[in-house]
Design goal:
The structure holds two protein chains of two kinds.
Chain A lengths: L6 E5 L2 E5 L5 H7 L8 E4 L2 E2 L15 E9 L2
Parallel strand pairs in A: 1-5
Antiparallel strand pairs in A: 1-2, 3-4, 3-5
Chain B lengths: L5 E3 L2 E3 L3 E4 L6 H11 L3 E8 L10 H4 L6 E4 L7 H15 L3 E4 L12 H13 L3 E6 L3 H9 L4 E4 L13 H10 L5 E3 L5 H9 L4 E4 L1 H4 L4 H21 L19
Parallel strand pairs in B: 3-4, 3-10, 4-5, 6-7, 7-8, 9-10
Antiparallel strand pairs in B: 1-2
Classes of the chains: A mainly beta, B alpha/beta.
Chain lengths: 72, 257
């Protein structure tokens, strides 16, 4: 794939490049995130984890992937 | 007086001690302290996953949410919108509805922003969340939170992480008198005796993080807190003697030689 065809997205504040039509599920798999331990926001909207294979990422998408950490 | 069950939002919990999971050296120490404390509720926070270090240890690998109740918090939130966003995400991770609301107003003293806290309580309750609310020790505000649908009132004893102990016993007692909701001291505990005092004031529970996690020996302090809460509760239920200015001998004068 030519690098010019890649699109830029932001994941947890960091820029990433992906190929067009890359799904949210592919992103989660690429990042090795266990689905049962995370929640995902796409452009500030919470995503139902059951639907992530149907969601294709677009240029400029902002994704937040969160989990539980220690807190009081 | 016979002890009643520790019930929050219709769920019964064995331990009246709720433990935070922050500030430990590592997850292993945290897990050990929780086990020793006997707590069956732990607070947790929602944060970004570290995407550059995929193999980093995760809290859920050490503390099994099937065995212990996770209480997601809104630490670091300064507005109702931030808090709601955070708790919606927490719910999405695994369906948590019982949550700890904490909306702060000042980064230094970490006091709760009560106007935003009240607004958040109303909004979250409407969304079906069961909201345990970190609040100041103001009886009027505690009443308003109760009316807004809070499932537990959690006033501070002193600023978060300060370890100063209960600064305003009178307010805590007044809140105790006016509410039937679970009353849990959240923040400011420094040592085991503070936890006992909270329970002796009639609180239903105590939430402790820093005093355990930052003690020289967190595991031993976790055990101390466990006993302090049990001890304080028993003391409260037993009914203390009236304090007297003068002494009253424990040994009779009868038969004195």
């Amino acid at each position: 794939m030519n690098i010019k065809n890649k699109i830029k997205i932001t994941v947890n504040g960091k820029q990433m490049q992906i190929i067009p039509k890359f799904s949210l599920k592919s992103l989660v798999t690429k990042l090795k995130m266990p689905l049962n331990k995370i929640a995902i926001e796409l452009n500030k909207k919470i995503i139902d984890k059951k639907r992530i294979s149907k969601i294709k990422l677009k240029k400029g998408d902002k994704i937040e992937i969160v989990h539980f950490i220690g807190g009081g | 007086m016979i002890d009643n069950k520790f019930k929050i939002a219709n769920k019964i919990f064995k331990s009246r001690l709720i433990v935070g999971t922050g500030k430990y050296k590592n997850f292993s120490e945290c897990a050990k302290a929780i086990k020793t404390s006997g707590a069956d509720i732990v607070t947790v926070a929602v944060r970004r996953v570290n995407i550059s270090n995929k193999n980093k240890a995760r809290l859920m690998d050490y503390i099994d949410p099937k065995k212990i109740t996770y209480l997601p918090n809104t630490a670091g939130c300064f507005t109702a919108e931030d808090a709601i966003r955070t708790l919606r995400l927490a719910r999405e991770i695994g369906g948590w509805k019982l949550v700890k609301l904490e909306v702060l107003g000042d980064k230094r003293n970490l006091f709760p922003e009560m106007i935003e806290t009240l607004r958040s309580t109303e909004l979250l309750t409407k969304e079906g969340f069961k909201v345990m609310v970190y609040c100041n020790d103001d009886p009027l505000m505690a009443k308003r939170l109760e009316n807004a649908g809070a499932v537990a009132i959690m006033p501070l004893a002193a600023p978060i992480g300060s370890g100063l102990g209960i600064q305003n016993k009178v307010n805590i007692k007044i809140i105790r008198k006016q509410t039937k909701l679970p009353l849990i001291i959240d923040a400011g505990i420094g040592q085991a005796s503070d936890a006992s005092i909270a329970m002796e004031l009639g609180c239903d529970g105590v939430l402790i993080n820093t005093a355990i996690a930052k003690a020289n020996n967190p595991i031993q302090m976790a055990e101390a807190m466990k006993f302090a809460v049990i001890s304080g509760r028993k003391s409260f239920l037993s009914g203390r003697i009236s304090p007297n200015l003068f002494g009253s001998a424990s040994t009779t004068d009868k038969g004195i030689i």
